[in-house]
From TrEMBL:
Top-level taxonomic group: Bacteria
Alphabetical list of PANTHER family matching this protein: PHOSPHO-2-DEHYDRO-3-DEOXYHEPTONATE ALDOLASE, PHOSPHO-2-DEHYDRO-3-DEOXYHEPTONATE ALDOLASE 1, 2
Named cofactor requirement(s): Mn(2+); Co(2+); Cd(2+)
UniProt pathway annotation: Metabolic intermediate biosynthesis; chorismate biosynthesis; chorismate from D-erythrose 4-phosphate and phosphoenolpyruvate: step 1/7
Family statement: Belongs to the class-II DAHP synthase family.
Binding-site list for Mn(2+): 75, 356, 398, 428
Binding site for phosphoenolpyruvate: 114, 270-271, 293, 324
UniProt protein name: Phospho-2-dehydro-3-deoxyheptonate aldolase
InterPro entries listed in its UniProt record: Aldolase_TIM, DAHP_synth_2
Record's cofactor remark: Binds 1 divalent cation per subunit. The enzyme is active with manganese, cobalt or cadmium ions.
GO molecular function annotations of the record: 3-deoxy-7-phosphoheptulonate synthase activity
Amino acid sequence: MSVEPDPSVVTGLDHWRTLDAAQQPAWPDAEALERVSARLAALPPLVFAGEADALRAQLAAAGRGEAFLLQGGDCAETFAEATADNIRGKIMTILQMAVVLTYGASLPVIKMGRMAGQYAKPRSSDSETRDGVTLPAFRGDIINGFPFTEQDRTPDPQRLLEAYHTSSSTLNLIRAFTTGGFASLLRVHEWNRGFTANPAYARYEEIAAEIDRAIRFMAACGADFDALRTVDFYSSHEGLLLDYERPLTRIDSRTGLPYDCSAHFLWIGERTRQLSGAHVDYFARVQNPLGVKLGPSTTADEALGLIDRLNPSGEPGRITFITRMGAARIRDVLPGLVEKVTADGRPVTWVCDPMHGNTITATNGYKTRRFTDVMDEVTGFFDVHHGLGTVPGGLHMELTGDDVTEVLGGAEEIDDEGLARRYETLVDPRLNHQQSLELAFQVAELLRRH
Ligand SMILES: O=C[C@H](O)[C@H](O)COP(=O)(O)O
Ligand SMILES: C=C(OP(=O)(O)O)C(=O)O
Ligand SMILES: [Mn+2]
């Protein structure tokens, strides 16, 4: 039986069009956009509403300290990089980190990719100037192209369809890998043994050996490793480009309520979380679990206003606050915010993004981050929550499975010159495969100390 939606629910989904929408492209051809929207609206949803509900329940558990979220992937996915090797590398990295964190936290880890839709980027500047030529800034493959030509940089609505189809094939491979035996706990553990066998990472050997013993203990107890051959893996991206999110929003036949079926989880970015803006209005109306990024200037009133708008009834798991304060500021600014939000009583899940508050420019011009700053912010996040008796619910990372050189440091000691070796990101620097695993092992060490 299907439940018909209240007509006002459906008309409300277009209310954002009357509000200020930050960070949207200026499409040159409104009719072309309309044709694409109609096509997108007729295509199948990418995820099922029931999966988003299951994720909401798991995020609620993370908010209570009964699970831990690991969300990771590129800053900006690209169409060209949606290859089997790349997708496999990111999944492997996230699964390997998740095993280490499961052990470190003694909690189930919710696995989520910034994948299968992370194509739209907010930018500090609308334009870019090179050698006296000014063109629109690159806003992600779903909007325009990276090459610095007028044709590439002109927003093209056909890209929305390519984003949909690329997301669809990415998600298909994710589902195949995570349910077809590739993600089996024993295999992932073997990959981690391979990592710590490298002398460069010997300091993590102790935890790897402990995990090994734990797995042998499980085997001796008769654990059903066949049941551990599949994992749930959720998709997420920044809910930024409303011309994409609106046509992919569907009425759930079970409840008559709208879900944004472009991904399981959508987050509102630091630059688009204005209480009276289009993004907050739009996402308030869909049922998915939502994230909101909170930077160091966030006031308690803003955070409480976001709860009023996005989760007035205080449903557990509905809101995840992803704090990105910067290593230098987290210990000063996070406690007051967490205290005031906690006093409100409506639950939120607190997650740490240790990337976006720690971006610097290297001496040779590369946009980068220091591994030590990233780790310092994660440490500050755990310290603050432990100090307050609140729950550190997860990590939000920019990472890739490749051997890129975009973040400084780690055991490989990537330095300013080293960045040039393999700097491939089109927007923000990502931890490479090894740095991501190092981070997971260091977090496991940290959790052991706590
Ligand atoms: O991913 C985050 C933002 O899109 C990014 O940091 C903005 O970068 P910009 O300052 O280079 O525009
Ligand atoms: C744009 C991003 O982050 P923020 O909104 O926190 O700056 C991002 O996650 O890539
Ligand atoms: Mn980014």
